[in-house]
Specification:
362 residues, alpha+beta, four-stranded antiparallel β-sheet, 12 strands, binds 2'-deoxycytidine-5'-triphosphate, binds magnesium ion
């Protein structure tokens, strides 16, 4: 990479807990745990900074959290709300660049070396993004700015909450030298324990070992650790490809020719498409009707609105006109489908698998 890159890492502060405190003023300023109830076998997904003072943290059994802090308030997670906020912040990111790599609902890398508003300072962009997030969601985020992903992520974590840390090339060594090895990208618990046993505790310790020795100790990853310890990380920011369309279709149990029946099937499909669109946060303007006749011949008819079509009613309002442009009814129909496309905003839809894996509630 010839040009020095400008990478920003954004991470929302105490994400789920902050959303709960925002939506329920009675929770503000209090230790709040989001996750399983204390009388269940569930765990804490996250907790407010007030709760962290008691040593509570993510993935701690809720029962244990309640023992540490009897005053803690336990609330169940509301994933749809978190997903909505996640979509909001991603739209903000895309105002600056499409090189956005989300790591989870509340976290993403941005490569702003080249950016849409042509702002030369990545720090200024980070300040602006934090302000936009606060204005639009009422929540705070922490940002890290540096010349690669590894350091940008370390930086965003450096002064949480509501932090902004910049690591320019000349400051990198200072940060890395003091960094505990467990914080290095790719160093899991097992490797961390091995490193500790070998007397390698910080970045400075790692740096003292030759690449050959590191490879000998840790295999291929050893070469990576060597590069990171020297502040080198060439991994690109890989944007998730925005979805271009979202559709549902159904093959009917028997071929139909009555328009009323078709509208009932289409209403069902429109409901499914609208629900999927809501989940994904994508905004489509073009609706396409697909009709397969009994003889398997297939036609599609499309219509584009000047605005985003979001609800099942928005979609259904267009259906009679589209159906009129087919021979449905004159000919029997065996399949109907609805697709929404033409996204206004290249937000993306991956939901972080991490949240789904945890046993929040019994
Ligand atoms: N999360 C989870 N289980 C975990 C870790 C996190 O369900 N083991 C969820 C809840 C968090 C969200 O993901 O709110 C974001 O994770 P972070 O690690 O960024 O933690 P927070 O945003 O809660 O706090 P911080 O201010 O430290 O970023
Ligand atoms: Mg976070």
């Amino acid at each position: 990479m010839s040009q020095t890159r400008k990478i920003i890492h954004i991470d929302m502060d105490a994400f789920y807990a902050a959303v709960e405190q925002r939506d329920n003023p009675a929770l503000r300023g209090r230790p709040v745990c989001v996750g399983g109830r204390p009388d269940s076998r569930g765990v804490v997904a996250t907790c407010s900074y007030e709760a962290r003072r008691y040593g509570i943290h993510s993935a701690m059994p809720s029962r244990q959290a309640a023992q540490r802090c009897p005053d803690a308030v336990f609330v169940p997670p509301r994933f749809t709300v978190y997903k909505e906020v996640s979509n909001q912040i991603r739209r903000i990111f895309h105002e600056y660049t499409d090189l956005v790599e989300p790591l989870s609902l509340d976290e993403a890398f941005l490569d702003v070396t080249v950016n849409k508003p042509a702002i030369p300072s990545a720090t200024r962009i980070a300040v602006a993004i934090k302000a936009r997030i606060r204005e639009h969601t009422g929540l705070t985020a922490s940002a890290g700015v540096s010349y690669n992903k590894f350091l940008a992520k370390i930086a965003s974590d450096f002064r949480k909450p509501d932090g902004l840390t910049v690591i320019p090339p000349e400051k990198a060594a200072e940060f890395i030298d003091r960094l505990p090895v467990g914080r290095f990208f790719g160093v899991g618990r097992v490797t961390e324990a091995r490193m500790q046993a070998l007397g390698i505790h910080t970045g400075a310790d790692l740096k003292r070992l030759t690449p050959a020795r590191l490879v000998q100790l840790f295999g291929k990853s050893g070469a990576l650790y060597h590069a990171f310890a020297h502040g080198r990380d060439e991994r690109p920011v890989v944007p998730h490809r925005p979805r271009k369309s979202l559709g549902k279709e159904t093959t009917l149990a028997t071929d139909i020719h009555r328009r009323q029946e078709m509208m009932a099937v289409l209403a069902e499909l429109a409901g499914q498409v609208a629900a999927a669109v809501k989940r994904s946060g994508l905004l489509g303007r073009t609706v396409t009707l697909k009709v397969k006749y009994a003889d398997f011949q297939q036609v599609t008819r499309s219509w584009s609105a000047g605005y985003a079509l979001q609800t099942a009613d928005d979609i259904m309002a267009v259906m009679p006109g589209l159906l009129d442009r087919t021979e449905a009814g004159v000919r029997k129909v065996r399949l109907l489908g609805i697709t929404l496309s033409g996204w206004q905003s290249p937000a993306e839809a991956e939901i972080s698998a991490r949240q789904l894996r945890l046993p929040f509630m019994d």
